[in-house]
């Protein structure tokens, strides 16, 4: 039950990031709904297909509520992007935080061992956002060397599987992990943390981008 | 049997749209065949994977005929794009019309309930075209705010599932729905219908795009 | 056993191509690891999902070793691209050569008949590279009309299924097919072979691209 709530909440956060991107790209409300659905449901559908289950999103119509809500919030400008505030990044970070936990638990319950469960949790968390950016014809945020994106999700998935294996996982542990992932991701953007580049070397903080 | 014919016909229409896009992007005939296969078979493969079946396209080699035919028609310039005529959009609309019906029926037969079947029908209809545009590095047509794309497919899937549930579905109903979806899509392009933008507001008809 | 080695080796070659592309696009090392994993594991995961198996890559953590190794080799500049040498294309060709064989065998063992097995082998071989290029926001190499890409893989898959059906497949046949596919692909780039364009006509060798 609480898993369903977490999953719907994560779907909602990601869905808002999708609708905000749709607004920035000047898509219409139908495109907004589709992009919100893709980012909100894409990671979980991939996860369920990989572990051989019919995806929840196609079995329970309640999963359509978060994308609908997100589309309405953005179309009515109750949530919107401005030059100074970047709600897209915040909602995306919140989705990331919840999905790395939900994804890992789902994979763990399906019987995958620890490393695979963490890996599938990471895939769930990162997958929807990659699909959002790819279909909107942008380089996925996960590849942006400003800030760290996959590392908080990796840590979140690993902590989830660790606490699950130790029998410590519960509401408190889940909340702590989610807050930890969210704060880490947001801090990394604010403080412009970065890791070395793929081909060696680092970017300088004064590089324009 | 008639389902197989409808499916192959829809595959053919989408495949032609893929080969026409390949021609516009100056890909070669092998790229044309791959793009035609992706758009023609991608939606159905996704649908089958989601409902947990081995995709028809990989079980029945006859599914390779439509992409081969489409590639030949475009390579020999029997079908081609000009500045004034846009066969790509027409073939895409025909594929959309057939696939929202075939996809919904397949999902319904697999035991999904009404809302899920309609949703999966929409996914089948829209999925192949999104894959075509994404791998060709274009913003998917479904996000183009000129004309409506997903709405005709949503209506087609909904009508299909409604007539199926009421026991009214048959050749006549299927043809009527397909024609309705096709005409709606084509009219929306000609008359430049549009729905509100994702971030509120509308585009003006005299905007250049 | 030898299948696992071949699969890991193919994964490694593709993974290096992913990390080299990440370096060229100025992604960071985490992005490099993700892109290496996507290209190395994406084709095989798609293949396993299509035939209804839980993907090996999520069951056996050893599949994470090749992407990790590739990321390290590129980050330490032990493997790197220069203007004159194009290791990306060579590693990609090596991955293509091994994956069209491994993919075909896997599909054949899963009980698909000859044509489907060859088709799925081709999908495995080409799929990872398409995902790599799509998420990095590039037009996939398979669509580049300079050189032939899919044809060597098609021939490799067909030869594999033919020798399997005839009972001639073994280490020697596998090695010969792999070398044949690799050499064909590399020669096609060096000698700038091309096939007719999708819309008819051919490109001229002196076209700039």
From TrEMBL, chains A, B, C:
Compartments, record wording: Cell membrane
Transmembrane domains' residue ranges: 57-76, 88-106, 168-187
Domain Glycine transporter: 5-75, 90-163
Superkingdom assignment: Bacteria
Stored InterPro entries: Gly_transporter
Membrane topology: Multi-pass membrane protein
UniProt keyword list: Cell membrane, Membrane, Transmembrane, Transmembrane helix
Coiled coil regions in record: none
Family: Belongs to the UPF0126 family.
Protein name: UPF0126 membrane protein
Source organism of this protein record: Zhihengliuella salsuginis
Phylogenetic lineage: Bacteria, Bacillati, Actinomycetota, Actinomycetes, Micrococcales
